[in-house]
């Protein structure tokens, strides 16, 4: 087996940061619309914000599939030898959990939209095919599931960011740098 680079490929880096921006934007917009907006008399403003949230968040479904394929065909750099085996296992588990969240969150969001009788639009270009019909019983299940998963994903993302910052500023290793630069 050939030696793995200490750095992620440029494609992996672009996918990582693009998905991070999209996920954080969709999470903030979803949080804002779910907690701070009430419908106008005609429901227009909150509906517009929720539609923006959906148009951004559905892109993650496509990107995570590309990213998983890329990761499968281009292994991640090895973690530093300064990390204990337990910390390496926790880092691996954390990444698997992030991938799970990146799939589960938009899928439950789509199920929520469809079961409530709404489309799941992608970048204002097209709607994902509706896989289930309007069904209030399903909505009653997937709405709270989507909300709980969003909170779990937000907490997991915060942990991911804090771990990257710890590696950079405290451990002074190249874990964060491996996702931002290429070797010279």
Give an overview in words:
By secondary structure, the chain is mainly alpha-helical. The protein has a single domain, classed as Fumarate Reductase Cytochrome B subunit, CATH 1.20.950.20. Helix content is 66%, strand content 2%. α1 (10-35) runs antiparallel to α2 and α4 (85-115) packs antiparallel against α5 (136-171). The longest helix is centred in the last third of the chain and has 36 residues, at 136-171. Belongs to the cytochrome b561 family.
Provide key terms for this protein.
2 strands, 184 residues, two-stranded antiparallel ribbon, Fumarate Reductase Cytochrome B subunit, mainly alpha, 5 helices
How many runs of DSSP E, i.e. beta strands?
2
CATH architecture name: Up-down Bundle
Helix content: 55-70%
CATH H-level homologous superfamily name? Transmembrane di-heme cytochromes, Chain C
Strands of the widest sheet, in order across it, are: 1-2
Q: Mind telling me the CATH class? A: Mainly Alpha
Fold topology:
Layout (H helix, E strand, L loop, with lengths): L9 H26 L8 H14 L1 H15 L11 H31 L5 E2 L3 E2 L8 H36 L13
Antiparallel strand pairs: 1-2
Summarize the structure.
The chain is 66% helix and 2% strand.
